Amino acid sequence: MAGVVERGAQLDNDEAGIERLVQGLFSLTDGELSMAALVGVGEASIPALRRVLLEGKPSTVYLPRQRVVRVLGELRAFFALTDYLLREKGIQDPVLRLAEEAVENTAAREVGRSQSDEAFYVLRAVAAARKLPGAVEALAGFHRDAAAPVLVAALESDFCRSTAADGIRLVRAAAIPYLIEKVRSPEPSHAEETPSSLRHRRAALALLAEDELDFKHWGVSSELRMKLALDVGRLLFEILIQGSNDLQIIGRER
Questions:
Q1: What is the percentage of the chain residues whose pLDDT exceeds 90?
Q2: Which of the four, 31, 75, 90, 217, has the lowest number of CB atoms within 10 Å?
């Protein structure tokens, strides 16, 4: 595909030429060149790219579809990317589903670049519904207080926890009530708390502890301070007990 970049700008009204460039995104050797050429074509390439993204079949080789997303991002065709993110995929095969999630993560990060209100609400909805790592990362990049409850909820995910924590630190004041509520809320109960709930509460507690548990600074009432102190103490005890059990299991295995 020699000279493809130079020819790209001449293909504005050549649908067949644009289709060839789009297919070039699936080439092992010419994929990056095709990306540059499609960016050079400009808005005329958006319909073909959008069609491939929305109607194309997922594949375990997900790089070509990521290229489609990146070109749409460069062309600021965020409407196409939000349509894609909000569309129900219904992929049953777990391997294909994982591969397509890599494409979705790329799409979420591209949408985040727009920093628009619409992008924020779409990313917040996606992150809340699915805890998609790319959506959580892009949402955190807005530095908006309204993202706080979703970021705190994302602490539950092993894949999102670190990114969510970074985002929470940027909106700490807004996140504090949600962190407190999470520390105080084992699921489904104290007696039958699940491992994921315990990890979630540990992560919330760790973020609260970064402020050295300065409850007065957070504007917490004296009554809630007492309840929270009891819950924090209980959680710390649970963590110690869990850690002791883990050590016993490791010792027996040895």
A1: 63
A2: 90
Range 192-220 burial, b when 16+ CB lie within 10 A, else e: ebeeebbbbbbbbbebbeeeeeebeebeb
Can you give the pLDDT at residue 254? Answer: 42
The three-class DSSP label of residue 187 is coil
| Sign of the four-CA dihedral 164, 169, 170, 172 | positive
What are 51-103's pLDDT values in tens digits? 999 999 999 999 999 999 999 999 999 999 999 999 999 999 999 999 999 99
The dihedral sign for the CA sequence 66, 71, 73, 78 = negative
Cis peptide leading into residue 188 (ω within 30°):
yes
The number of CA neighbours under 13 Å toward the Cβ of 16 is 0
Peptide bond into 58 cis (omega under 30): no
- Sign of the Cα torsion 121, 123, 128, 129 reads positive
pLDDT tens track for 113-155 = 999 999 999 999 999 999 999 999 999 999 999 999 999 999 9
Cα separation of 37 and 105, whole Å?
Answer: 24
Which distant-in-sequence residues (6+ apart) come within 8 Å of 93 by Cβ? none
For residue 239, the one-letter residue type is I
Closest CA to 34 of 14, 17, 13: 17
Both tokens of 123, joined, read: 């990313």
- 234, 240, 243 from 248: Cα distances, Å: 21, 12, 9
- C-alpha span between 186 and 197 (Å, rounded): 6
